[in-house]
Design goal:
about 140 residues; mainly alpha
Length: about 140
């Protein structure tokens, strides 16, 4: 059983998948920073200087009076729809970036349309039969 597990764990596909997951996690952090630190402040400024992360709906009296979403969560139940908006925009950005990466890879890997190969030279038999035909025509 140990040998079977070793064979499974060290197959190329498993290692490739592990590398993909690790790179994906790192890429996710980059995109999270891009969204949280670059894009969302710009969108918040355009929307009137408000921060989406503090958009919430308090469900209890104490959470309704809270000035921030974090304070509202500590005070009681609160729906953080601003966080949902941020995560949704994050998803759209990741999906768009992945689309662009796949599109670029497809363009790089696209094989040029293969031109039809030139016709093969006629075989010796065909050449001989053509000569015989031409000689018979000449008589």
């Amino acid at each position: 059983m140990l040998q079977e597990f070793k064979k499974f764990a060290l197959r190329g596909n498993v290692v490739d998948l592990a590398i993909g997951v690790i790179i994906g996690a790192a890429f996710g952090k980059i995109v999270e920073s891009l969204v949280g630190d670059v894009i969302m402040p710009v969108i918040g400024r355009i929307a009137g200087g408000l921060d989406f992360s503090n958009y919430f709906l308090g469900l209890t009296a104490a959470s309704k009076a809270a000035p921030t979403y974090d304070a509202a969560k500590k005070a009681g139940a609160a729906l953080g729809y601003g966080t949902f908006i941020t995560v949704s925009i994050n998803f759209l950005i990741v999906a768009f970036v992945m689309f662009m990466v796949v599109r670029a890879m497809n363009r790089l890997l696209r094989k040029e349309e293969a031109a039809p190969p030139p016709p093969a030279p006629p075989s010796k038999e065909v050449v001989l039969l053509t000569e015989i035909r031409d000689l018979l025509k000449a008589r």
